[in-house]
Write a structure and sequence with these properties.
mainly alpha
Length: 165
């Protein structure tokens, strides 16, 4: 069962990675276009900072899940290197569970924040882009992170139960 869940998480995270990659491409194209426009035509791209900020939100949030799966995230391993066996697994399970709770709260509060932005009509300063779709997108992008953390936690619990027997 966990193998199917892991496969689903990997498929979903790979799909979301492509959305994040589009955000990175948008940042590169806008930044390059801004420099080229300024150097060759004396006119930068109007609102380039707004576009780059939004593209960063998309790039970072949609790539987070696959980053977690591939262990490309930041981790403090100085303490873990000294721990072995069951102690290490228990601590890792507790940290993973707390991280899962954090991301569940992030999804919940980000969705509420997006509702707030929508109701207030908040937009970017230069292009007047509505900001709420990007807050909703970030909330949705963190769902695969939650699923990946849940799968990792269940795997750790299964591993702990296997070592008890």
């Amino acid at each position: 069962m966990l193998a199917k869940f892991e496969k689903f998480n990997l498929l979903l995270s790979n799909s979301f990675l492509w959305i994040g990659a589009a955000g990175i491409c948008a940042m590169i194209l806008v930044a390059a276009g801004d420099v080229i426009g300024l150097k060759f035509f004396g006119e930068p791209i109007h609102g380039s900072v707004d576009i780059i900020v939004v593209a960063q939100i998309i790039a970072i949030s949609f790539a987070a899940s696959l980053s977690l799966i591939l262990n490309r995230h930041l981790a403090v391993e100085m303490v873990f290197e000294k721990l072995h066996g069951r102690t290490r697994t228990v601590i890792e399970a507790v940290v993973t569970f707390l991280t899962l709770v954090l991301f569940i709260v992030l999804v919940w509060r980000m969705w509420g924040y997006a509702d707030n932005l929508r109701m207030r009509g908040t937009s970017s300063y230069v292009l007047y882009l509505p900001l709420y779709p990007y807050a909703y997108a970030m909330a949705v992008a963190f769902i695969p992170v939650c699923l990946t953390l849940l799968q990792k936690f269940l795997t750790l619990v299964t591993t702990m139960r296997g070592t008890e027997k």
